[in-house]
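User: What would this chain look like folded?
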Amino acid sequence: MTAGPLRLLVADDHAVVRAGLRALLDGEPDIDVVAEAGSGEEAVSLAAQLTPDVTLMDLRFAGPGSGIDGVEAVRRLAARAPGVAVVMLTSYAGRADVVRALEAGARGYVLKAGPPEELFQAVRTAAAGSVGLAAEIVGELVGQVVDPAQELTRREVEVVRLMAEGRSNRAIAEALFLSEATIKTHLVRIYRKFKVDNRAAAVSEAVRRGLLELT
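Assistant: Here's the prediction, encoded as structure tokens.
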């Protein structure tokens, strides 16, 4: 994340939606919308050229000649400009869509019908290197762990759940009444069990394994 305002690219196939998002996001003093894209291909091209901190990406580009969808755009952008974080913005909250987006490399997933504060938080969280999911997404994905054969302990699942909400180590420690050192220990164990090396990959793997699943 660069110094100064957070630089953002908005990608959606509807001009009216892009205009509304630009007006909304430009109203935040720490966010600067630097460009707009109307297709997945254009989003990848512009993001690779401009390297914004975050690209806000529509999940499903529609209409004639719409080309690739948002998930494929995330994959291509990850290859061309891995430093650009992507937050998916969509009307769809299905588990399959969330899993596809996270596995492709998205660092956030918010709903178009959600409150603006969730959008702002997801963008800032993604820019900071964590995963930002809308409360509704987390609420639907987080289930109860009832199988004792699951690899993670209940406490580790709690840590993953809070990580999926975009909370920092300190915030997780405060929520669970633990020390930051203890949280770091849990993260090391989670990463080892999942064979990953970062928070986004851990959340994605937790969703894939069904530890964060539809209730």
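Strands lie at 6-11, 31-37, 54-58, 85-90, 108-111, 132-133. If you want, I can go into more detail on any region.
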